[in-house]
Amino acid sequence: MLSVSHVRKAFGSVQAVCDVSFSLGRGSAFGLLGPNGAGKTTVMRMILRILESDGGGITWDGVPVSRRTARTFGYLPEERGLYGKMKARDQIIFFARLHGIAGREAQRRTDRWIERLDLREAAQRACAELSKGNQQKVQVACAAVHEPGLLILDEPFSGLDPVNAEMLSAILQELQAKGTAMLLSSHQMWQLEHLCRSFCIISNGSNRAAGTLAELRAAWPTRIIKIEPGSEAVRLVMHTVPQGRFLPPEEGAAYYEIPAQTPLPELLKRLVNADAITRFESVEPSLHEIYLDAIGKGNTD
Amino acid sequence: MLIGALGVALFMRLPAFMASYDGGAKTILLSGDPSLIAQAQPLLAKDFTIAGRLNLRGGATASDLRAHRKAAAIVALAKDAAGLQVTVYSKDPSTLELPTMRHDLLPLNVSVTTNLDARKVASLLTVRMTVKPVSSKFGTAAQADQARIMGYILLVLLYVLIVLNSQLILTSVAEEKTSRIAELLVASVNPSSLLAGKVIASATLALLQMVLWVGVGFLFGGERSSGGELQRLNDVAQLSWQTISVGAIASFAMFFLLGYFEMATLFAAIGSLVNHTEDLGSLGAPLFIPVVAAFFIAVSALEVPDAVIVIAASFIPLLSPFVMFARVIVSDVPVWQVALCIFLNLATIWAIAIVGGKIYRVGMLLYGRTPRLWQIWQVLRV
């Protein structure tokens, strides 16, 4: 289990990371969300010991992460890091051997990854010739080929078309099932929503929100209710809800925003009494909305 | 490596190739007084090829020369009261060895004016001289000469091997940075191991290169032919290849390893600071100085191994492998000096490995503006 507590890092006068904490257990995936320049990559680099944190602690299975331990982690950097002239297959084998997997085994694993990632045609070509998507796939293989306990992926879905993104998502879920702990950062919220159990939203170097999706949703202060039909009777009832807000109706349905604490069963009973309700839906805020809200709040702090 | 091998092969073949052109300048035709010709012929035959005799009326013209294609000149001999009168008709006087011709014909001139026998005059004019070098590791001047030429060749070989391969490491490290694979490498492997691995692998490649080039040199340095400066160099080189002692090979290998590890580690450290390929020029410029200085001083060392600057330079790190190697080839260097040189170089390698290793570790991740010297110093102090 990885535990990051109160890490901070400054570059000269710029405080890149102020106070970030989270933890992540084996076999689970954790999503690090935040706008560009929020400090996500810096946090990842501190975990990998590429950068030294100015304070706070990072432990793996209770033991502070040493450089040697950090080198066993798998890392997918944000920018492509491949030897342009090396063939894709050789590149993956190289990284396997760099992490201590001997020759024959390295080849076997590489070939398995190539099959899994659908890289058969690309495998014998130089990395510089491959498309961005294929390069990203090669990069993923390089990061995971040595079966690390912790896999750190910085923007793994960037450059991948929807089909490949789906393939990668499936692979990551498989790895999770096998027990690999995963730390991902991404802008593609919807991908992470399916993959990660817990999240941490970082902006300007500090935690803005953290927790599982359920927790984040529960912390959301309001709820959006969709009611059909959007009749006058419904409107009258909704008027009485304290701190309720009318939202523009769409296609015959009425939308309202009400405080999260409002007891829904009672509201439903009153609506049913007032009219023939055909739809009563509580729309959960998406991760995207939660994210935007958290960032927005952060910027006004 | 292959291009180098090709280069060596060509170099060995070049003198033979040039000789076929060169030979022309040594071929002459004699004309004029038959008795003079008869006396002059043995004198000139030492240095020139006499292609034949010609009977001329008046001055020779270009068509006469063209008629005897191989001849570079027509030498017309005549005598008068003052002595020998030689007229040389030539297409290109600058290619003829006129001083040699003058020297050869000198006895004839004396004999004609004094009526002494030409051969007696020739022996009078020859000063018997034996050169006995004192306190030199070589018995004869010829051996010293041979050693010097062999030293020159080996020095060039040493220089090329060390500098070329160090350059390769520089560009390789810089390429890793610009392609951003540096970050991934540092996250996967101990940077010091990475650096050491690069240097050692490259050293092995360089030694392989050396063996290949020497092998090709042996293979192609086959025949001997006449004439030419280059050929003389080649002949001596041939002899040298065959007489290279184990000691010379051992010292070559040792100085190569010392010099290479020093330079390669330094170059790798500098290379890790590169951000864009343009930086390579400005960061690499200061490295030029020791590299060029080493070569020039080492070449001088072959001629004057005991000059003060040479002795001093043979202890300065980066320069010393080359300079000391040159000194060792052509003179007897006291053992304590060689030992001191080795010790200083090992200490330098150790220091560069530590400092360079730190620079490399930090440099590999330093992106953004190229760091100034004081920033690097700050990083090292941590």
CATH architecture of the largest domain in chain A: 3-Layer(aba) Sandwich
Order of helices and strands of chain B: HEHEHEEHHHHHHHHHHHH
Query: Counting H and I runs of at least 4 residues, what is the number of helices of chain A?
Result: 11
Beta-strand segment tally of chain A: 14
> What is the C-alpha radius of gyration of chain B, as a whole number of Å?
29 Å
By CATH, the topology of the largest domain in chain A is Rossmann fold
Shape of chain B: elongated
Overall outline of chain A: elongated
Oligomer: heterodimer
The overall strand count of chain B is 4
Brief write-up:
The complex is a heterodimer of chains A (301) and B (382). Chain A is an alpha/beta fold and 301 residues long.
Structure description:
The complex is a heterodimer of chains A (301) and B (382). With 301 residues, chain A is α/β, with parallel strands linked by helices. Chain A folds into two domains: 2-212, Rossmann fold; 221-284, ACT-like. Chain A, domain 2 (Alpha-Beta Plaits, 2-Layer Sandwich), CATH 3.30.70.1150. Chain A contains eleven helices and 14 strands. Chain A has a six-stranded mixed beta sheet with strand order 6-7-8-3-9-10, with helices on both faces. Chain A has a four-stranded antiparallel beta sheet with strand order 2-1-4-5, with helices on one face. In chain A, strands 12-13-11-14 form a four-stranded antiparallel beta sheet, with helices on one face. In chain A, strand 9 and strand 10 form a beta hairpin. In chain A, helix 3 crosses helix 4, helix 3 (88-98) packs parallel to helix 5 and helix 9 runs antiparallel to helix 10 (264-274). Chain A starts with a strand and ends with a helix. The mean pLDDT of chain A is 85. Chain B has 382 residues and is an alpha/beta fold. Chain B folds into two domains: 24-125, D-Maltodextrin-Binding Protein, domain 2 (3-Layer(aba) Sandwich), CATH 3.40.190; 141-381, no CATH class. In chain B, 69% of the residues lie in helices and 7% in strands. Chain B is built from 15 helices and four strands. In chain B, strands 2-1-3-4 form a four-stranded mixed beta sheet, with helices on one face. In chain B, a hairpin with a 2-residue loop joins strand 3 (73-80) and strand 4 (83-90). In chain B, helix 6 (141-178) runs parallel beside helix 10. Chain B is elongated. Residues 222-230 of chain B have low confidence and may be disordered. Chain A binds chain B through residues 48, 50-51, 67, 70-71, 73, 75, 77, 79-84, 95, 98-99, 142, and chain B through 176, 179-190, 365.
